Amino acid sequence: MARSYYSITVDKSADAVWSVIRPFDHYAWAGVESETIIEAGKAGDQVAAIRRVVAGDRILRQILLAHSDVDRSYTYAFCDSPPFPVRNYIATIRVAPIVETNHAFVEWWATFDCAAEEYERWTNHFEKEGFARWLAALRRFMAAEIG
To answer: 85-134: per-residue pLDDT in tens?
Structure first.
């Protein structure tokens, strides 16, 4: 099983950061130009909710597997085949407080299966082209927030 991981600090409280990323249907903070909705009238924090992300002509559907306000985290997987050659992709994003500074530590990781010869390619892709970019966008989004 492969694992990709990336983390950052954000100069806002963990509660402030969590309040932004908490709803599974709010994805603007990641800098992804898309329309995101929750299917079937479920809530954005309801386990089994399906998030549909429409970006141009591409549609991704992801299911919320776990959601915890206590841990400030959620876990999701793809409903359909991912748009890349991996299987069993499961990702988690989590926000933790940095007590000393009252800032946030944000980490995002995914586990997945892929061909052995593709391991480096896909672990690096998700880390650098996914999590690193989206968390940098989160930092910019939070910096633009008042307060």
So the answer is: 999 999 999 999 999 999 999 999 999 999 999 999 999 999 999 999 99
Q: Which of 90, 76, 16, 17 is nearest to 45 (CA)?
A: 76
Yes or no: say if 64 and 49 are a contact pair by the CB < 8 Å rule: yes
Read off φ and ψ for residue 13, nearest 5 degrees. -70, 155
Dihedrals phi, psi of 52, to nearest 5 degrees: -110, 120
Distance between CA atoms of residues 46 and 43, nearest Å: 5
Phi, psi of 11 (to 5 degrees): -80, 45
pTM above 0.90, yes or no: yes
The two structure tokens encoding residue 23: 């709803």
Tens of pLDDT, residue by residue over 6-39, are 999 999 999 999 999 999 988 889 998 888 999 9
What letter represents residue 36's amino acid?
T
The SS3 call for residue 99 is coil
Cβ–Cβ under 8 Å, residues 45 and 24: yes
How far is it, in rounded angstroms, from Cα 21 to Cα 8?
14
d(CA 61, CA 103): 32
